[in-house]
# Entry
Amino acid sequence: MAERGASARREPGAVRPGGRTARVRAAVLRATGDALVEHGFDRLDLGEIARRAEVGRTTVYRRWGNPTGLVVDLLAEMAETSLPRTDTGSLREDLRANARLVCRTLTDPRQGPLFRAVIAAAACDERAAEALRRFYRVRVAEWAPCVVAAVERGEVPAGTDADEVIRAVSAPLYYRLLASGDPLDEATADRAVAAAVAAARAGVYGGEPG
# Structure
């Protein structure tokens, strides 16, 4: 996605070379994710990350600089490796695949705590916050074409804001993760989809209902 390369000033760890450097990056980011899951952002320590990744401390300090640099690069890596959208030919089924993917991610024993940790980091560091916003821009842009295709098929009105529909599907799931603590399951995901599709058809997200 274009957002990742838009800034003239590269974030720490932003270069994506191959070979040994790529292996070092993978090991460091895996160690960063493990540490975030276990201890959270406030206890993220570059020396500990170097030990876990079995790389030199100077390598970690030189490339990532500080805990925020690690979180920024981890979010970029998460965006790069996220699963692509589905294309079923039905808006409801496409969005259901999206919602269930989000649900599985947020309830995963590793990914759920990891998302809580990076969101906590974003709440107290503006660079981490921008990296998190960039991550979600990438994910929304990946799924928005399913809404565009639905407009072309006549499932929802012309002028429907595709990005807003995708956000509407995910928002109730993140609310349960971060605020209410209510269960997250496929039924919850499917209800979020049903609400988003009904609202889109009614013109809530732009356009005029058919």
User: Anything to note?
Assistant: The chain has two domains: 2-78, 84-201. Residues 1-15 have pLDDT under 50 and may be disordered.
